[in-house]
Amino acid sequence: MSEVAAVMHASAEPAESPLTPESWGKLGMWVFLAGDAMSFGGLLVGYGLLRHASTNWPLPSHVLGISLTAFMTFLLICSSVTMVKGLEAVRNNQRSVAKTYLLLTALGGLGFLGLQAYEWTHLIHEGLKLWENPWGSSLFGTTFFMITGFHGMHVTGGVIYLLIMLSIVSRPSVALGHGWCYNVVEVAGLYWHFVDLIWIMVFTFIYLI
């Protein structure tokens, strides 16, 4: 009877959640990224519909600097590689290596933002604005600045995020390896890879097609 009572008592206790604080962090980031992906998807679908309905939509390759933007894309792809290497260094307890790669990742984001600012300045000087487009439909300028600006905000947030991770990894009192430090850097990596992937889609739909 005592064994039966013990089994019944154990079954009555609430089961522990299989989600740890670390997995909750990843889940939260995935939920955020899913919602963000729908935001970008809506913007790109709207862009496609407006372009299809317009009779005087300019050809992007004749207006935008494809070579410059291709280099910007290359920078972000390289920053994804350094993000992977930085996370690997955190896992292997290589503090100085991790700091170097996280810094390179943040610098890649800053370089992207600097080139985007240059691109915007050049296009505005040529006459492209939110409400004006010297090469055709004014909605081209509206959608271009909204979509690239929205992505630029994400890159800015990502650079700040990375610098915070860099400050955490730089503290000698913080243990690296597979602890909480690795998990928070991994979550930051999920965000950064998402930002890079979204830019490849933006580059394809806005600049190349």
Fold and architecture overview:
By secondary structure, the protein is an all-alpha fold. The chain has a single domain, classed as Cytochrome c oxidase, subunit III, four-helix bundle (Four Helix Bundle (Hemerythrin (Met), subunit A)). It contains seven helices and no strands. The chain has helices at 2-12, 21-53, 60-63, 66-91, 95-126, 138-170, 180-208. Helix 2 (21-53) packs parallel to helix 7 (180-208). It is elongated, with a radius of gyration of 23 Å.
Descriptive labels:
209 residues; mainly alpha; Four Helix Bundle (Hemerythrin (Met), subunit A); 80% helix; 0% strand; elongated; disordered N terminus
Alpha plus pi helix count: 7
Structural category:
mainly alpha
Q: What does the radius of gyration come to?
A: 23 Å
Strand-residue proportion: under 5%
**In percent, how helical is the residue content?**
over 70%
CA-based shape: elongated
Q: What's the number of extended β-strand segments?
A: 0
CATH architecture: Up-down Bundle
Blueprint (SSEs and pairs):
Layout: H1 2-12, H2 21-53, H3 60-63, H4 66-91, H5 95-126, H6 138-170, H7 180-208
Helix pairs in contact: 2-6, 2-7, 4-5, 4-7, 5-6, 6-7
Task: Summarize it.
With 209 residues, the protein is mostly helical.
